[in-house]
Specification:
Layout (H helix, E strand, L loop, with lengths): L1 E5 L3 H6 L13 H13 L3 E6 L1 H9 L6 E4 L12 H8 L4 E2 L3 H8 L1 H10 L7 E4 L2 H5 L7 E5 L13 E2 L2 H15 L3 E5 L5 E7 L6 E10 L10 H5 L1 H4 E4 L3 H17 L5 E8 L5 E7 L10 H8 L4 H19 L1
Parallel strand pairs: 1-2, 1-3, 3-4
Antiparallel strand pairs: 5-8, 6-7, 6-8, 9-10, 9-12, 10-11, 12-13
Helix pairs in contact: 2-13
């Protein structure tokens, strides 16, 4: 079986003048190599395609694949993660991971939380701010937590994200609006422990493959899981396996969230405890990072006894079974 690989290579965009933060979600060469090596060891023939422009050129030239392993994040717009899957759908080429609807919905954290809340899954009270006028109507109690509505990898999250008064809320939210050119998500701050749960599969066959607790070291200036702390996790963050009772609670919320948002094949769901110790949905990552060493999903799998090759194999088996059922 011939598998094409679609991705955004970080060095390509850095060479074009994009900033480190702008391309924080994109992948290093070692990630592409790790996926390709695992697929080859699992018996698949691979071909590197690249980003959406390179994919479009290849399709126009007549190239085709039995399936595409897609981790392309896209560069522009809230629908950027959906662009490659939409193009593949147009050419009727099957691919791994979620479809355009799920990827667009989940990238917009506000829309995802509306769906989650509507299905009775716990999530912090929130508002989506598009202008300074929207900030005037926010009546949620402080502290609040703010971040760009459609970014990942901790982009736009810093110590300024935790606000304790209206002056800081207005000032810091307006800074995010100007910098990222997109709405800002304002949430009631969840004070409890933070977890991330790995999910494999689709629909009724989806299952949690493990989870870990995320604890930022007390010595760190930023006591939140920011871009800085994610990139320097070896010195700033501790990962651990929670107690079984907590695992059971988190698995239920994570799996319900995954299926409610109709995600597919593999990814992560991030959770945080509220003041009553109830796991709350933060966000879902249907295109979770797959760096063999540094990404959260491979790390939590490793902690739970699942090798990188096993992780890639389970993702592929989910996609293959799903595609055969659709046919």
């Amino acid at each position: 079986m011939k598998i094409g690989l679609t991705y955004d290579l970080k060095t390509t965009y850095l060479q074009q003048g994009y900033s480190h933060e702008e391309v924080a979600e994109f992948d290093a060469e070692e990630t592409i190599a790790g996926i390709e090596n695992s697929l080859n060891e699992l018996g698949y023939q691979t071909e590197r395609i690249g980003n959406i422009i390179e994919l479009a050129n290849a399709l126009v030239s007549g190239k085709r694949w039995d399936m595409v392993f897609n981790i392309a994040e896209g560069l522009h717009g809230i629908g950027r993660e959906a662009q490659v899957p939409a193009l593949l759908d147009a050419f009727r080429i099957p691919y791994v991971f979620s479809d355009p609807m799920a990827l667009s919905l989940t990238l917009h954290k506000g829309m995802a939380k509306h769906i989650i809340k509507g299905h009775g899954i716990p999530t912090a009270a929130f508002a989506v701010v598009k202008s300074e006028k929207d900030l005037e109507s926010i009546q949620m109690p402080f502290p609040l937590f703010i971040k760009p509505v459609a970014e990942g990898t901790g982009k736009g999250i810093s110590q300024k994200s935790l606000v304790t008064n209206r002056q800081d809320l207005v000032q810091n939210a307006l800074e995010l609006l100007q910098k990222f050119g997109q709405p800002v998500l304002v949430e009631e701050f969840l004070p409890g422990r933070e977890f991330t749960v790995g999910i494999i599969g689709t629909g009724a066959e989806a299952f949690p493959c493990g989870m870990m607790e995320v604890l930022v070291h007390g010595k760190e200036e930023e006591q939140i899981y920011s871009l800085h702390n994610k990139e320097n996790y070896e010195s700033t963050v501790a990962y651990s396996l929670p107690e079984k009772a907590m695992v059971d609670l988190c698995y239920e919320v994570a799996l319900n969230s995954w299926n409610t948002l109709e995600c597919r094949d593999g990814g992560r769901v991030d959770l945080k405890l509220d003041k009553n110790g109830v796991p709350n949905f933060i966000e879902v990552n249907p295109l979770a990072g797959l760096n063999p060493v540094h990404s959260d999903l491979p790390i939590l799998c490793r902690l739970n006894g699942i090798s990188y090759n096993e992780l890639i194999g389970m993702i592929m088996q989910s996609a293959l079974k799903r595609i055969m059922i659709q046919k």
